[in-house]
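Handout, page 2. Input:
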Amino acid sequence: MSWEEFVDQLRPLGAKMAERLPPRLRDDPQTQAESQRLLLAATMRAVADAIVGDRAHPMFVPELNIALNLFQPNSDTIYKSALIEPGGSYRMRGERGSIKYMRMAQLGPDTLRTGKHAPTLIDYDFDTLNLSPEGVFDVLISPERPQGHAGDWWSLHPKCEKLMIRFISYDWGAEREPRFGIDRLDVAPNRPRLSAQELARRFDELPTIIGNAATMLVRQVEALRNDGHINALKTVDFSQMTGLARQSYYEGAYDLADDEALYFEVAIPKQCGYWSLILTNEIYETTDWYNNQSSLNGAQAVLDPDGVFRAVISARDPGVHNWLDTAGNAKGAVQGRWLDCDERPLPIMRKVKFAEIRGLFPSDTRTVSAAAREAALRERRLRAQMRTIW
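Output:
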């Protein structure tokens, strides 16, 4: 297949995206441009596997992040994945770092390739390993524990075709990110030159992967709107979409005029390993959390003295610490997570006039001046960029 023939296979993806977009957005120039950005992000994601993905010689590559803004990534989470061969034997070695969580999911047939969601087969927590005092781990992953092996071992599910690692950070730029590698043990260590046939196979699957990754969730916000969850929240179950074990979610669509805001309130569970709140645009891209305070987690947020988290979601800065900036998106989605919490409350959220916001907060709520906000945003951007992406 020539380069021109390959490009021709990508051409129909524009029409596929247009068909998947909610009808009310198809003629909107802003949405059209953002949907092209989704296609480009999906192309970046797919090309990583085509170039270095190898089930006989696996390598972890970026799955989701600020550049690969697909499937609505969590702002605190870096996602990496590696394609593997079912039934193989693998060794992972690395350093745990000091981030909040490091988890690995074993996945079956890849959603990027099948276009269908599926639950996680097995979820492993790196904190269950025998870490050295320096946080080093060394674990074998195989269908059966090797005879005589006394070290760490994780069972490999017989249907596992992909490993995905999440590392979740609370204190961006200060916590040490993990570093790790993977080696397949039941094949020769060297990798011969890839044949023309193998390269062609990898290139042939790119249009399918790109189309699936870019278009799968562009109707998610519209579905919330159609279900009546506009400026209102509901509990959602992502367990069938490789959602984390022990984590629950809530979300709702928002629709705000410039002089409106959402007042958000929830009592944080007394025992809670991790919680966060993020925003998306209308086609479910996570709102740029590097350059805007469009997300908050349990370490970044400030609770009022009564233990309640109160926040404002708006396009304009209300002058309170817990502000989530819609960043020019008048419509989108709000999504929250509870991980390892003894309770999973559904927050209160209601639309109010922007001018009324300050009157809804206790008098001792922490406020932020314009100068302090600018300094905080600049610090946030630097800290976000200090995290591992590639």
